[in-house]
Task: structure prediction
Amino acid sequence: MHTIHQNMDNNLIKLIEKSIQENWDLKALTNYKGSTLQYKDVARRIEKIHIVFAEAGIKKGDKIAICGRNHANWCVTFLAVITYGAVAVPILHEFKPDNIHNIVNHSEAKMLFVGSMVWENLNEQSMPDLRGIVVIDELDIILSRDEKLTYACDHLNEMFGKKYPKYFRKEHVHYEECEPDALAVINYTSGTTGYSKGVMLPYRSLMSNVEHIHRKMNLKPGDDVVSVLPMGHVFGLTFDFLYGMTHGVHLWFLNRMPSPKVIATSAAEIKPKVIACVPLVIEKIFKTMVIPKVDNKLGKILLRFPLTSEKIKAKAKKEAMNIFGNNLMQVCIGGAPFNAEVEKFLDQIKFPYTIAYGMTECGPMICNDHCSETRYRSCGKVVDRMEVRIDSKDPHNIPGEMWVRGENVMLGYYKDKAATDKVMDGEWLCTGDMATIDNDGYVYIKGRSKNMLLSASGQNIYPEEIESKLNNMPGVNESVVIMNNSKLVALIHPDLSDIGDRSNITAILDSTIKELNKELPAYSQIAKFKLWPEEFQKTAKKNIKRYVYNDINI
Result:
């Protein structure tokens, strides 16, 4: 492994231990409208889970799967796993039951901690090698295939009391540190059998991410953070949770899907310093809650033209800050491409946003800056302890495939050398993204190399850039641009709230496409469009599953 900073302290476990001791009486984890755990409560629960692991014969390096919605006990479980020296296997709760069974079996997990809502649809017979299954919500065991495990769970308080007869205190918190290259997490990029790749992240990757985030955020013990991103995905795992817990932050978990309304309601009460979320959430908040309050008549038009009125800019920023609780330091946006017009609006009103670009294989950070350094349409400069290479004869002007190396890079895919060899060339990892880089080191993502379309005249077309413009135009909710018989075709799921006369939707969209084409070079203009009756299928990260639509005949 190529190490950029040989003397970097990669000891994530010691950082967790120190944070728990120093923030013993501070609030750590709160389930919104529910219970709160202080750092000392987290430590006690970790210790109890360690007792259960020891009795169940769990060893260092054994895999423990965790699948459920964001919850205080999800965090406790994850911390208990890695501070024990076991390997955490976080699974997105949105995955289908068969996918979850597949991941549990493929990872060779010894135990499964699962949310009650997910558990209702699972079948323990499909996971024959598990020693036990625990429901996260109350940390209650619901399946035990081991007598010692059953006994430990039935007598846990008694065993804990015997081990610590004079109360459990901060000086009892001691965890075994792990080597920087030791495996900490296996994070699956997909739940589908045949496509499932388990990304092996070592401790150095998690620690490097945490250190970078701290340098850019610099939150203080006791600061409030709303956790919107699912912790089953590595962006939420590191950006919200691991960074927060290693620096004394108070994390809040929303108990419902993070819709604009839910976020606005909770943020008004919590007044968070930082929120990290996917672009779709920010886009909806600005389109449905900020812009209508600034000028209801203009609506989407505000997104398409430069703002010249300082009064409108000030009002828009005030409305936006108010929605997020008026205590916001910055919003971090990542996990998917950000709509260009919405970003332009944020840029114009000087809203404190930053873009985080990365991939699961880098745990996840590759590029990111503080909001004061953000440049429009750029994902920022490469993060600490990482290097970027763009394979282009002119990387400043001609997009090329982006490669990275450094502390954040994975060990490989679990039990899949062929897949690892496809993306790794020695120390370098292929991101699969096309990008340029400017003279100051700011990176600009143009699109996925596999999504790139080639025009009849040999021009490279990035459909994401066209869709970004189209999605902010009248009558359009979301779109997918595909190549069909050498012509560009837009599949459009319409936004009927934009339209008074719904019978007129085709005429309105026809006019919209003509307006769009005026802004596009000849080779990337839309030849025709097709109405799509329902929302496009999406991944758990809310990216459209493009492959579903690529071969549609129009």
